[in-house]
Specification:
Elements lengths: L2 E3 L2 E2 L2 H14 L4 H4 L16 E8 L2 H11 L3 E4 L7 E6 L2 E8 L2 H6 L4 E7 L3 H10 L3 E9 L2 E7 L5 E6 L17 E8 L2 H12 L2 E3 L9 E6 L2 E8 L8 E7 L3 H10 L3 E8 L5 E6 L5 E6 L15 H4 L18
Parallel strand pairs: 3-6, 7-10, 11-14, 15-18
Antiparallel strand pairs: 1-2, 3-7, 4-5, 5-6, 8-9, 9-10, 11-15, 12-13, 13-14, 16-17, 17-18
Length: 331
Amino acid sequence: MFMNDVAAFSSIAIWSASIAQIATRATWCSAQSSAGLNGEIGLVNQLGRFAWYELLTTDLAAAGAFYREVVGWAVKDASTTRLAYTVLAAGNVPIGGLMELPEEGRRLGATPRWVGYVAVDDIGATATQIGRLGGAVLLPPTDSNIGRVSVVADPQKATFALVTGLTYGHREPSGLDELGRVGWHELLAEDRNKIFDFYGELFGWQKASGETDPADLYQLFSAAGQTIGGMLTKLPSVPQPCWLYYFNVDDIGTAAKRVNDGGGRILQGPIELTDGCWIARCADPQGALFALQGARGQRDTERPSASEVAWSAKWGGIASQGRMVLPKPKR
C-alpha cells in the first residue's frame, strides 16, 4: 500500500475493497480479449521478479499525459467495453498499465497508488503459501485483462500483487538501467530484518551485499542473481509499510522539472548517490507516490540541500540502493 503523501496511508481494508471491485469489473479471460502493444500476446519468462506495474488513478487521461512527459513512456489505449485501460511502454516494450480507481473505492477513502506484480508459476499455490507464512490474501486469484492476478500483503502489511499468464511484457528480464524501465524496487518495512525470510521463501530472493556495508540499515536483494532492490526499516513517521518503485530517466533534473510543470510534486530530492546516480521521490498530480532515478545534466549540478537529505541522514546517510548520499559541501 502506498503513501498518498510522505506521512499518510490508506488502510489495507480500503485497498482490498478497491481492488476487489476492479476485479469484479474485469473478470474475463485475458488470453482471448487482450493483446500486446503490437497485437501479439507474449508470456514473460521472469518468475519471481516484478513483471508488471499498475497505477490506480482518478484520471486516466491526465495520468497518461503526465508520465508520458516525465518518464517518456508511450501511452496506448487498451480499453474494452468492460474496462478502461491504458498500457504504458518503454520503447516497444509494455511495462505497465493505468486503470481507474473505482468510485466505490474512492468513497471508502482509497487513493491513487502504484502496485507491482511479481510473476509466479502457480498463483493458487503461492497465495496459499503467503497465508501460511503469515501474510494475507486481499484478492484471491482472479482472471483479469492482464492475466490471472491476486493482491496480497506481507506479514507486515505491505501490499503487492501476483500474476501468472501475463499477456503483456517481454520474454526475458531486461537490464535495470534501461530507460523507461523500473530500475529499483524498495520496501519500507516495519522491520526489514524480520521480513526478508518471507520474501526469500516465497520467491527465492537472496540477500546481496551492499556497497557501504548497511548491515543494520539497508538490505539489498537479488532475484536469479540480479540485484533488483532493497529493504529498509521505515521511519516512525511513515505509518504503513509499502513498496516504492523507481523509474529510470535520462536526466533527473529535467524529469524533476517536468514533474513540477505537470502538476506533480517533488517530495524529496533530487539526491545524489556516491556513484553519480541521482534519485527523487515524487507524487503525481493525483497523489500516487513514485520515484525517479538517473544521471544529472552538466547545467544542473547543485548539491542537495540539508532538507533534501534529511530522509537519508536519519538512516545514517543511507539512501536508495544502499548507497551513501554525498555529504553537503561546506560553504
